Amino acid sequence: MNSKTKTQKILVYLMMITICVITVGPFLYTLFIALKSATQGIYDGLLPTNPTLSNFIDAFHKTDFLLYLWNTVIVTGIAVVFNLLFSSMAGYALARIEFKGRSIVLTLIIATMTVPFQLYMAPLFQIAGELGLRNTHVGLAILQISTAFGIYFMRQAFLNVPKELEESAYLDGANRFVVWWKVAMPLVKPTVISLAIYTFTFTWGDYLWPLINTTDSSMYTISIGLAQMSQNFDGGNMKLISAASILTTIPSLLVFIWLQKYFISGQTDGAVKG
Amino acid sequence: MKKRKLTLALGTGLIALGLAACGDEDEGTSKSGESGELSGEVTMWTASLSGEPFDSYFADLEAEFEEMHPDVDVIIEDIPQNEIQQKVLTSLTGDDVPDVVNLAPRYMINIAEQGGLLDLNDLVSDDVKNSFLEGPFQAGHYDDGLYALPWYLTTTVAWYNSNHFEQAGITETPTNTQEVYDTAKAITDSTGKPSFYQIINAGDTVIQKMITLANGESIVEEGKTVLANNEDILEFFTLTQKMYEEGIMPQENAEGSFSTAQELFMAENLSLVETGVTFLGPIESGSPDVYAASKAAQPLNDPNAPMNVAVMNFSIPSKSDNPDAAVALAEFVTNAENQLEFAKVAGTVLPSTTESLEDDYFTNPGDSPKALGMLEAAKSLERSKELIPALENVSELHEIVKNAYVKNLQGDLTPEEALQEITDKWDASFEEAGLTPTF
Fold first, then answer.
1. Which CATH superfamily is domain B155-308+388-433 in?
2. How much is the pTM?
3. For residue A23, what are the CA distances in angstroms to A35, A42, A205, B17, B124?
4. Which run of H or E residues covers position A263?
5. I want to staple B184 with a disulfide (CB 3.0 to 4.6 A). Which of A237, A244, B102, B195 is the partner?
6. Does domain A59-269 have CATH number 3.40.50.150?
7. Which residues on chain A place their C-beta less than 8 Å from a C-beta of chain B?
8. Domain boundaries in chain A?
């Protein structure tokens, strides 16, 4: 290995370490604060001197953490399943079915992405109430059940599927639904998984809509529980808030680690064809 | 930032339209029985008071009220403070409206202005009205209407790190801006760290400070700002600029939030700050040593100057479908006995009822740093009131002062220029809003 290659390698590694510190650093710092005992100040050294899990236990006891976690799991589950289903069906239709006004429909769907949530929050609140969706898990997930982003993302993926494969399935007697489910969907699996991760992370951390659409605190999600802790009237306990934040982040982290290889490949898929 | 503000403005506009559309529906529907006995469901929202010891306190309160009124079902929910205004406004566009809401005055004004709150003037008896301290009671008024009953209060005290004071050989807290400069400089010279922090928040804290420094003189007279000749305010702008430049005030002060001050105080990068009595909340758990060294004193001004009191209110939304029970519950929660109990449970707040303040607890609350802070706060309560009047352009006034003060702090404006900018922009704002206040 010549010295030029060596220098290049060192630079690449230095860059990777820097990026790693920037991205993982805050998470580790929060973890260290969460592990500090009652007698150690949060600014007394970086590492906990007598690491303790008491803040994690207190986070469970001092809020309805388990109930909020359960609500979040159900809401996120509903959002992921239905967003994948409806977005992939709509995306497939927009990619493959020729119908009058298709491009207008697509434009309109994409245009809704530019409308800020605050603008339609009040009417949505009224409609949700009239449909009996207040204080329900479906009501909390409703914003993520079929998203404009999901439809566009899936449409782009379906455009990459070779038409020949679908045509041969039609020749074998398959109908459109079978072709969508058995031919096209397996071929866009990385995109499906990417959309699942996007939907999961967004719904898991969504705050404003669950707060607005609940008038019963037993339906609160975990992000509202965290806000209650951090907005405590006298400022809150940073160790407790850190512990609760870590507990909140763990499921997202595990899901991402589990599905990361698909996620990376899926992210590039949507960008290939316009 | 501009885009976010536009979005918020559009959102609020839509909500206001919704409010206008369904304003009078259901209003005044009483659920009193023929005998006058209260009945039905009554929902109360508190702001950021979840978890213990508050859960037990409210559970007891709920049980007691239901025992007094067996046909009433009380539901108490807690909402994060920062979003409570938005949640109330949104709920008013539909039918799921709370009956009693815990609001800070700035939220109360905004919702009342849009017709979202009941005027309580004729619904609350004179006995109840007279049970409150005058200043906090006035904070519930807007445009001749009474839109809230006062609940708990916090007033300003000075918090300092006694170890740093001892290290610098300082034995007394300052009582004017020049003394603040001298004290802070001595501490910074001794510790090598910044020592003083001026909380800015949305600009409201600086306005309150200006009114305190004016010490009875008006800073606005009939809609015209009169700051130019006030030497104490000019000195405050001059010396805080100097302290910032000399590193006596930390660089973070340009951001100016309450939570930044808490973090700096916890990390021992701050020795003296003038703020609310709840300041020590996260410091007790986050930095036990600093908490033990924390001491409270009277605010850093003339001992007779008026101080601000921060009031937490209870309001009743105009679309409440059980206003009689709502008024009864609001009166019950804010009565002297329950306010005293709440102050003891919370540990760092004061009640707004005259009778509760006469309790021994407020002359001898214990010797913890928090308790001593409350003692100082109780002392300054006598000269406290809401210093900034309830005006519809109040948010704009805050922002103008924040921008000018930060530019002054960073040396982008001279103190004279900063005060002139405030004068010009405030005058324009009053003229545009058609207001002629004096304060």
1. Periplasmic binding protein-like II (3.40.190.10)
2. 0.80
3. 20, 21, 18, 43, 56
4. helix A238-269
5. B195
6. no
7. 38-44, 62-63, 116, 118-119, 121-123, 125-126, 129, 134, 208, 211-212, 215-217, 224, 227-229, 231-240
8. 1-52, 59-269
